[in-house]
Amino acid sequence: MRRLPILATLVVGLAVAAMIALGLWQLRRAEWKEGLLASYRAARHEPALYGLPADLPIERAAFRRAHILCRISGAPVQVGGFGRGEQPGFRNILGCTLIDGRRIMADLGWSPPGVKPALPAIGQRIEGDGLLIPDEVLAKRVLGGAPGAVPLLIVLEGGAPGLSPSVAPSIETIPNNHRSYAVQWFLFAAVALIIYGLALWKRSRAR
C-alpha cells in the first residue's frame, strides 16, 4: 500500500476544511439576512415614530416612517439617485443632530445633474416626516466615526425647499446572495478534492 504524501495531504485537507467552514458560515449569514429582511418588512406596518427613541434597535426602526426634528451638523454629500419621476440625478444628504445629541443622516431631496442646490447651513433646524433607512456604508461617509453616530438615514417625504423628494431605497434592493456564495465555497472544496485525487492517481500510475 502506497503512503500518501503527508505534507501535501495536510495542506489540501486544511484548505478544503476552510472552504467548507466558509460555506457553512455563508449559510448562517443567509439565515440571518432572511430574518433581518423579514423584520424590515414587518416594520413597514408598525406605527410611525415621533422622534427616534434611544432604546429602539436599528432593525426595529428601519423602514418605519418617522417625524424627525434635528439640526444640520455636517457638510452635504451627494449620491446618485432618482427623483419621483425616475429622473437620474443626485440625492443631497447631510448629517443631522437630534435633540439628545445623536447624529443621523437626512436626505433632504433630489436635484438634477448640473444644479447646485442651496442647502441648509450648519445649525439650521430640519423637521419633517420621512422613511428611516439603515445604511452603515453611507453613515461612515457622511457621519464618520463621531460619537453618537447612528447609521440611519431619514428620506424626507416632502424634500427641503428647492429640492424634489428623493426615491427612498427599497427593501427589495437589499441583496441576499449568501446562499450562492455558500454553494461556490462547497464547489471550490469539491474541485480541490477532485484535483488532488487526480494528482494522487497520476502519481501512483507513474510509479
From TrEMBL:
PROSITE patterns: SURF1
Any Pfam family matching the protein: SURF1
UniProt subcellular location: Cell membrane
Regions that span the bilayer: 182-201
Keyword presence, Membrane: yes
Chief location bin: membrane
InterPro entries per record: Surf1/Shy1 (IPR002994)
Membrane topology: Multi-pass membrane protein
A Gene Ontology cellular-component term: plasma membrane
Keywords, alphabetical: Cell membrane, Membrane, Transmembrane, Transmembrane helix
Superkingdom assignment: Bacteria
Similarity comment: family membership: Belongs to the SURF1 family.
Name of the molecule in the record: SURF1-like protein
Source organism: Rhizorhabdus dicambivorans
